[in-house]
Design a protein that fits this description.
By secondary structure, the protein is an alpha+beta fold. It is 26% helix and 19% strand. Strands 1, 2, 3, 4, 5, 6, 7, 8, 9 and 10 form a ten-stranded mixed β-sheet that branches. The radius of gyration is 19 Å and the shape is globular. It binds 2-acetamido-2-deoxy-beta-D-glucopyranose (2 copies). One 2-acetamido-2-deoxy-beta-D-glucopyranose binds next to loops.
Length: 328
């Protein structure tokens, strides 16, 4: 047996142990999840590179650029090209998903060329219909753009775009829910509490939230939960999670309220869910950039969400009761 074959076998054995030991999903549910992910990842990658999407992306990026200028102005950020330490900047560029925040040109900023043949922008997250929403899910979250409700933390504009992978078109009028933990790694215990809410997706499929960077909590890599309910919320929801570079998490968690988070830290690389969203040509982490010179100015993070509108999933979400006690 060749060495590479032995290695593959070892990896299969390892991942089987992971499957059997999974705290949230049964083995069957996990297999289904993986299959949906693999199909969706391929489809979303193709959509992001399609000529149909190009026009939408162009206009969306213009809107996003305008939004960033607006955020900088509103937060009093003096942003100049020379203001930043060059070395630390280069270090970030080589190791993270941070985009070129110094450029005034949206084409550099969002890694998108107006006049080039479209190519896949690889930051994406595939949402699949699930029978289980995991812990902390609350229906009837309020409609709001700003989720912060007074929570302390580093400001984050989370800019998402929903794409129907069956048509490669932006999904308009879908209900997009987002929820995540606060700086201490705690979720609000009711539907109207902090760091929860929904918006309707725009004509370009976008839903942008003002929130804070999520804190970590025991047993999971840092993430934001998202559901999308197509057709004005009437269709069954697709669920997914959004992940962040460990680099940006580490920098942010050295500040303010995050410093008092005593929960166990789990890295992306050790997470059970995160790797399922990746493939060799697909990157499940958000792309991001600092809003200004200082971490306290906040970050802009963006990602495409792939949804298969033909896939209805199960009729009713179910929440695992054994997770209920975790609702803090
Ligand atoms: C909902 O949760 C928030 C934060 O956890 C709390 O401040 C608020 O009082 C709660 N509201 C209700 C109705 O329980
Ligand atoms: C979308 O869902 C349908 C129904 O489950 C399935 O037949 C199809 O393969 C899916 N398409 C993609 C791109 O995932």
């Amino acid at each position: 047996m060749r060495a590479s074959a032995i290695l593959k076998l070892a990896l299969v054995a390892l991942s089987t142990i992971g499957v059997l030991g999974h705290p949230y999903l049964s083995e069957r549910e996990l297999q289904e999840y993986k299959l949906n992910q693999a199909r969706g990842i391929e489809a979303l990658g193709n959509c992001l590179a399609s000529p149909e999407m190009h026009e939408h992306q162009k206009r969306m990026i213009e809107e996003r650029t305008a939004a960033l200028q607006h955020i900088r102005k509103a937060r009093g950020v003096e942003f100049t090209l020379e203001s930043r330490d060059k070395l630390s900047w280069l270090k970030w560029l080589s190791s993270t998903h941070e985009k070129h925040g110094h450029s005034k040109d949206p084409q550099d900023l969002f890694n998108f060329k107006w006049n080039e043949a479209p190519k896949a922008n690889t930051a994406g997250c595939v949402l699949t219909p699930q029978s289980i929403y995991g812990p902390f899910w609350k229906d009837s979250q309020p409609e709001r753009q700003d989720l912060r409700a007074g929570e302390e933390g580093v400001y984050m504009r989370l800019a998402m775009q929903v794409i129907d992978v069956t048509t490669c078109m932006p999904m308009q009028g879908a209900r997009v829910d987002a929820w995540h933990a606060n700086a201490m790694g705690t979720y609000s215990g009711n539907a109207t509490g902090f760091l929860r809410g929904f918006q309707w997706s725009s004509g370009h499929g976008t839903a942008d939230f003002d929130t804070i960077f999520p804190g970590h909590y025991t047993d999971r890599a840092t993430h934001v939960h998202v559901t999308v309910r197509p057709e004005g919320g009437k269709r069954y929801a697709h669920e997914g999670m959004i992940y962040f570079d460990e680099g940006v998490r580490g920098w942010i968690e050295r500040n303010g309220a995050y410093k008092n988070n005593k929960q166990e830290l789990k890295l992306n690389q050790d997470d059970d869910f995160a790797p399922m969203s990746a493939s060799d040509r697909f990157d499940p982490l958000v792309q991001w950039q600092w809003v200004g010179r200082y971490i306290s100015d906040g970050i802009l993070a963006w990602i495409a969400l792939g949804v298969n509108a033909s896939d209805m999933g199960v009729p009713q979400p179910r929440k695992r009761t054994f997770d209920d006690h975790l609702d803090r």
